[in-house]
Amino acid sequence: MSQKKNKNIDFGYKNISIDKKKDLVKDVFDKVASKYDFVNDISSFGLHRYWKNELIYLLAPQKHQVLGDLAGGTGDIAKRYLLNGGGKADIIDINFNMIQRGITKSISKNLRHLVGNCESIPIKDNTYDRVSIAFGLRNITYREKALKEVYRILKPGGRFVCLEFSHVENKVIKNLYDIWSFKFLPSLGELISDNRKAYQYLVESIRMFPNQEQLSYLMTKTNFSRVKYKNLSQGIVAIHSGWKI
Ligand SMILES: C[S@@+](CC[C@H](N)C(=O)[O-])C[C@H]1O[C@@H](n2cnc3c(N)ncnc32)[C@H](O)[C@@H]1O
C-alpha cells in the first residue's frame, strides 16, 4: 500500500496529517540532540553498541569502498565504519542539530556531513558501495520513496543494510519488554533529557513499524535482491539487508 495516497499517518499512536510528520520528527530530534548518545547508552543498557557492531560486521568495511550512512545523526555508524577499515563515509541527515552534534565529535578527513532528506537524497545515482540506515527508517514519512532512493544511490553490486527496532515474538520477553518500554522508558527519558514525549514517541513508533517480514517485502518491492534479515536480542532489533544487482 502506498503511503502517499493516505492523508493521515501514524506518529507513534497518534494519527496525524501526513504533512505534519516530518516537522514533528524534526522537533523530537531537535530536543534530544544534545543528549542523544548518552540517553542511547542508558536506555538500551549499552546494547546499541553491540547492535551497531553487528551492522558494521555486515557492512564489511574496506579501504576502497564508500559508505552513505542515511539518517546518520551524530555519526555513530559512519565513524565505526571508518575505524573498522572503511575508506570514506558520508553522513546524511535531515536534522542540522544532530549533524552539528556529530561534527564536534568527528575527527576524520574521510568523513563528510550532509544535511538532506532520505526521501530525496542530494547524491547522484550509483555513488555508494554500501548504504546504511540505523534507527532512521522508522522516522521517515515516505519509506517506500526512501528505499527507492537508497537503491538509486547504491552502485550496482552494492549492499544496503538497515538496523531498526523490530518485533519480539517470544511472549514472555515481549511482556517484559513492553513493561520496560511503557512503564519505565518515558520516565527515564524525562529524568535524563527532560523530554518524556520523545521517549513516548520512541516506544509507540517501534510498535507501529512494519515487522521483519513486512519490511523484507517492502525492500523486495523496491527492487533489492537477496533480501534477508537477522534478529538481535530476540527481535528487539533486526538487521535487514539487500543487494542492488
Ligand atoms: C534515532 S536517530 C538515529 C541516528 C543514528 N543513525 C544512530 O543510530 O545513532 C534518527 C535520525 O533520523 C533522522 N531523520 C529522520 N527523518 C529523516 C529524513 N526524512 N531524512 C534524513 N534523516 C532523517 C533524524 O534527524 C535523526 O537524526
Specify the CATH architecture. Answer: 3-Layer(aba) Sandwich
What is the H level of CATH, i.e. the homologous superfamily?
Answer: Vaccinia Virus protein VP39
Overall mean confidence score, pLDDT: 93
- Estimated share of beta-strand residues: 15-25%
User: What structural category characterises the helix and strand content?
Assistant: alpha/beta
How do the strands of the widest beta sheet line up side by side?
Answer: 5-4-3-6-7-9-8
Number of strands: 9
DSSP helix count? 9
Distance between the termini: 25 Å
Q: Kindly provide the radius of gyration, computed on alpha-carbon positions and rounded to a whole number of angstroms.
A: 17 Å
Which residue ranges are poorly predicted, with pLDDT under 50 across at least 5 consecutive positions?
none
Bound small-molecule species = S-adenosylmethionine
How is this structure best described in words?
The protein has one domain (about 5-170, about 200-245): Rossmann fold (3-Layer(aba) Sandwich), CATH 3.40.50.150. Helices cover about 45% and strands about 25% of the residues. The chain has helices at about 20-30, 35-45, 45-60, 75-85, 95-105, 145-155, 170-195, 195-210, 210-220, and strands at about 10, 15, 65-70, 90-95, 110-115, 130-135, 155-165, 225-230, 235-245. The protein has a seven-stranded mixed β-sheet with strand order 5-4-3-6-7-9-8, with helices on both faces. Strands 1-2 form a two-stranded antiparallel sheet. It binds S-adenosylmethionine.
Write the topology of this structure.
Elements: E1 8-11, E2 14-17, H1 21-32, H2 36-43, H3 47-59, E3 66-70, H4 76-83, E4 88-93, H5 96-105, E5 111-115, E6 128-134, H6 143-153, E7 154-165, H7 171-193, H8 196-208, H9 212-221, E8 225-232, E9 237-243
Parallel strand pairs: 3-4, 3-6, 4-5, 6-7
Antiparallel strand pairs: 1-2, 7-9, 8-9
The structure holds S-adenosylmethionine.
